[in-house]
Amino acid sequence: MTAPDIAVPETAAALETRLRIPRPAVVTAAAVLALIVVVAIAPGLFTDFSPTATDMKQALVAPCGAHWFGTDQLGRDVFTRVLYGTRPAILLAVLATALAVAIGTLTGLLAALGGRFADQVLMRGADVLLALPPLLLALLVIAALGPGTGNVAVAVAIAFLPLYARLVRSEALLVRRSGYVESATGLGIPRPVVIIRHVVPNALGPLLVMAPLGFGTSMLYSSALSFLGLGLQPPTPEWGAMLSEGKSILAAAWWVGVFPGIAVTCTVIAVNVVGRALRTRFTGRGVA
Predict the structure, then answer these.
(1) For residues 130 and 225, what is the distance between their CA atoms, to the nearest angstrom?
(2) pTM
(3) What is the DSSP string of the chain?
(4) Lower CB count within 10 Å: N or C terminus of the chain?
């Protein structure tokens, strides 16, 4: 009689191997991101049409050889508008992510290194922000500041900075209590020097790995706010605003809203794939 099979728990290494993103997927995602960057820098290389020129005789033309993505209600080439909408969408997400990372980093470092009172005040404030859904919090900020591209970036940054602040705080506390930091302090090295030379660089490592994932989320929320008419105003092309323009005629002219949506989806997926690959590479964690 053979012994019954015994289920062996999956080891952390085996789980990481199973969850690792296949290399072809990472290479494809990186190539997509490279193409998106080129399009954002020089969209005119890929089209001869103007993103704002109207031609009512060509209104709502279905995708064809002359207009690969069709035309919208005003006869504007949708493919051209998607290309020219890449730069505003990317810049808005980059600005929102940069603000969230910068303010979150300062908040986290102050909470970890500023004493008990600063820690309590800053982290309770972060808890208040985390208690609200990010989109609702962003809408509240927009209601206070008013619509506009810069205000959308600030709103998205405020919605996500508590996450970065908590991450930096936890990493800074771990580094501050590590052996080499305590040894440096025991050797009489001034506290500011220890913080700048040892605590800050080691605390920011995981944050830099998480930033690409945050970029994809910032793009989603920025596009959502633009969809609601709170970002760039027509006729400037922007993916979220183009989605909003196409929603009312989706049944009659699906291409007006579908192709900007595909652009947002492909960009966010590519960013997340590359971001998770970087996270696995530098932290050894395949999933959040």
Answers:
(1) 19
(2) 0.82
(3) -PPPP-PPPPPHHHHHHHHSPPHHHHHHHHHHHHHHHHHHH-GGGS-SS-SS---GGGTTPPS-SSSTT-B-TT--BHHHHHHHTHHHHHHHHHHHHHHHHHHHHHHHHHHHHS-HHHHHHHHHHHHHHHTS-HHHHHHHHHHHH-SSHHHHHHHHHHHHHHHHHHHHHHHHHHHHTSHHHHHHHHTT--HHHHIIIIIHHHHHHHHHHHHHHHHHHHHHHHHHHHHTT-SSPTTS--HHHHHHHHHTTTTT-THHHHHHHHHHHHHHHHHHHHHHHHHHHHHS-S--
(4) N
pLDDT tens, position by position, 123-181? 999 999 989 898 899 999 998 988 888 899 999 999 999 999 999 998 888 887 777 67
End-to-end CA distance of the chain: 44
Under the banding of pLDDT at 50, 70 and 90, the label for residue 257 is very high
Residue 286 CA, distance from chain mean position: 18
One-letter amino acid for residue 7 of the chain:
A
Cα–Cα dist 53/39, whole Å = 19
Nearest to 171, CA basis, from 145, 143, 201: 201
Q: What is the distance between the alpha carbons of residues 196 and 207, in angstroms, rounded to a whole number?
A: 16
From CA 4, how far away is CA 237, in angstroms rounded? 64
